[in-house]
Amino acid sequence: MFDKISLSGTSNEEWLRLRKTGIGGSDAGAVCGVNPFSSAMKVFQDKTSGETEEQDNEAMRIGHDLEDYVAQRFTEATGLKVRKSNFMYRSKEHPFMIADVDRLVIGEDAGLECKTASAWNADKWADGDIPLHYVMQCCHYMAVTGKRVWYIAALILGKGFTYRKIEWDEELIGRLISIEDNFWNNHVVKGIIPPPDGSKACDEVIQQYFHTARKASTIKLVGFDEKLRRREEILGFISELQEEQKQIEQEVKLFMQDNELASSEHFRVSWKNIDSTKLDTKRIREECPELYADYGKLSHSRRFEVKAA
Fold it and tell me: What is the rounded CA–CA span in Å between residue 34 and residue 76?
């Protein structure tokens, strides 16, 4: 059902290269278009680039450092003992699917995914809910390992601990495999960038791929007239809604007058004084051009504009 790749003695660089050889659990939600922080296009860039730089931020550091604690809390809450697995798993039937799991449950055909979440995201775990991209991650692990159950445990920082049980869903896992198969074989293998989804992650990838325009180069725009007309309609709707938003805010401000705070049973409104200092770059450039040249920082970007022909 799967091959096991020993991670014993594997360096971080080697582990990162192994991850590029298939779709991992943390990639599954993005490939399916349900990860609010990533996209299929971003996963494509990661799998096809030669770089092996590991992403690192405070949230990821906290998650890694607290993984043992979350596993311990899960054992305390359920009585189920868990163990680490020093292997990466690769599906034999679908070798583009790999799994690097947090824990395996002892004495049960199950695994465990450990998460930490900000208190701001506590609502996403309320009433038995699980963020959808985490559901897809656990389903991916079941698809690779063949295990019929996957638990997910989450420490909500400053709020509490919770866990969920996800059972094998034939239809959902079949659909997941189909999406991953299409992504890997029709995009990664062929080197074809997957279509954008409107996310910030896609913006970032497109900017990285095509960060500089060839001056005076022009191509004929084919097949986009209807989409660009729709874009104009959307911009009109946005303008109308923003005007309505401003009107509501102005009405509230007129009601508050010189009061800083206002509250009702359902809302709290603040209209506070804010002092800020900004550099007068125009004046510095005119009066101290050498200083401006020394400390000025050139930024590079591309501006996207659409005008009627």
Answer: 31
